[in-house]
Amino acid sequence: LMEGISHEACSLASLWGLSKLICFYDSNGISIDGEVDPWFNENVKQRFTAYGWNVIGPIDGHDFGEISKSISNALEHSTNSDKKNSPTLIICKTMIGKGSPNRQNTSKAHGESLGEKEISETRKNLDWHHAPFVIPENIRKSWNSRKFGRACEGAWKNLFKSYRAKYPELSKKLKFRVNGNYDKNLVDFDFKNLIKKYNSELPNIATRKASQNILNFLGPNLD
Hints:
With 223 residues, the chain is mainly α. Helix content is 53%, strand content 10%. β4 (54-60), α3 (64-79) and β5 (88-93) form a beta-alpha-beta unit. α7 crosses α8. The longest helix is centred in the C-terminal third of the chain and has 21 residues, at 146-166. It is extended, with a radius of gyration of 24 Å.
């Protein structure tokens, strides 16, 4: 959110009333160059309120209960017809690298790996005794959403079945896209030659411009 284009998008999101959009703002006061206070002191809450967003917080970004409650409040806001249709920003105050004895709340936790010694110290500090990549059974059970996922998948299949009956042609196009298929003119097109052409004719353009060139070709062919 330090770049201008982000705020242009945020302003537009409010204008379009994207009430289902929920963003988390990690406010830890640290960048790769160190503390942000000397060069970044804007009031994020007031700025997004001015955009017309629903703003929650700051909350403790390490408190699962507060996070869960904030998400519930955001979802309630998004479905409340008495309130303006607007996105929600949840401001979370956090400590970068929390638990690392020598790196927490420093830029070193932003752009550098902890290293074996600091990882070992962090494990002791957090009272974490499990081996790397081992997920304790109680955590595994808590995060297991297979049953809920199956229910969601079943609801989606029923919804798509009704959609297919009502809009047979559009449903074919949707399934075509979801399955990763492409129109014949795209399949037959030689992307390697297209990229080679751009590399020879426009070798020094910015990556965002190169991306635009490809998107300008793809857009009309993905109707």
